[in-house]
Amino acid sequence: MTELRIEGLTKSYGPPAPPVLDGLDLTVPGGALAAVLGPSGCGKTTLLRIIAGFLHADAGSVTVGERVMTGPGVHLPPERRRIGIVPQEGALFPHLSVARNVAFGLTGLDRTTRRRRAEEMLELVGLTGYGERMPHELSGGQQQRIALARALAPRPALVLLDEPFNALDSALRAGVRADVRAALRLSGATAVLVTHDQQEALSTADLVAVVRDGRVAQCDTPQQVYRRPADPWIAGFVGDAVLLPATALGGGTADTALGTIPLATDTDTDTDTVNGTGTVLLRPEQLELTEPTSGAVGGTVTEVRFYGHDAMVTVAVDGLADPVDLRTAGPVAVQPGERTGIRVRGEAVLHS
Ligand SMILES: Nc1ncnc2c1ncn2[C@@H]1O[C@H](COP(=O)(O)OP(=O)(O)OP(=O)(O)O)[C@@H](O)[C@H]1O
């Protein structure tokens, strides 16, 4: 299994434009799938194109295993990098059968070996028996799985996936993601998935690298990025966030408009010694509606949005300038205009 190491990667599309990548560091352990997640225009495609060798970096390095692909005075051409690419919309060759598409990159092998390898790859992506079909006879999801089979066939050290599920409708997307994830895991390839879709990054990847201002602002497991975001911007970018002004009380708690809340202790912040004010982060699913009894934190429901599997309730909390959102499973027992109590479950993250 091959590690990907990116160090100090810098790229500008020429002055006076500011750098798109500005000293970006990222390490992806061998066999892991890392999602590069960031807002539109943050440089995700630029990063992918430099890793693939389609674009020169201004500075920094890209190393796959022991091989420096990009570095000072080094720029291996794309065809010598052993990197497989799954583009946005499959981009299968329309005039070649599925089997020939999959075998396309298998140069220097005899016909029987090529055919066997293509069959293996079709089995890996769950499309055994589809080899004689033409690409237009496949669904969008099947085309993406064939694109992955084609990328994996030459046993690349690294696979790059460029927003590969964008063209699929949402009903199909979750299933294709899971299939692609499973095939990648079986193949053992290290992979980088570029996406601007938070759900996709959190549900598919082993590691999520959030890119902002040309650098990786946080790289961690999906759970850590969601539950312990490094700052309020990341908190809001990877999910719905409730951000509250807070005063640290010492002893691992903070005082907020929603009461005294215990602080997570598995963060870099030493919650015993934090003093002064900051912002605490909670997720909407950590807030619960309660009876509006005296003594409880109270507020007025301003909006209820029902999504089927859950609902989001917006509450104007007494004494708090901005309303808060809370997520509730099951039937929603409140209406806009009603009074409610609010209780916090679990721990919050404090940012100074
Ligand atoms: N060939 C180019 N010449 C000049 N500027 C470019 C070029 N390609 C990209 N840019 C600029 O670099 C920045 C980053 O672009 P890039 O495509 O890498 O972002 P992205 O994160 O992939 O965006 P999206 O999610 O919208 O695809 C953008 O401001 C873009 O306008």
TrEMBL record:
Residues 4-238 form the ABC transporter domain. It comes from the Bacteria. PROSITE patterns: ABC_TRANSPORTER_1 (PS00211), ABC_TRANSPORTER_2 (PS50893). GO terms for molecular function: ABC-type ferric iron transporter activity; ABC-type quaternary ammonium compound transporting activity; ATP binding; ATP hydrolysis activity. SMART domains: AAA. GO terms for cellular component: ATP-binding cassette (ABC) transporter complex. It holds the Pfam family TOBE_2. This is ABC-type quaternary amine transporter. The lineage of its organism: Bacteria, Bacillati, Actinomycetota, Actinomycetes, Kitasatosporales.
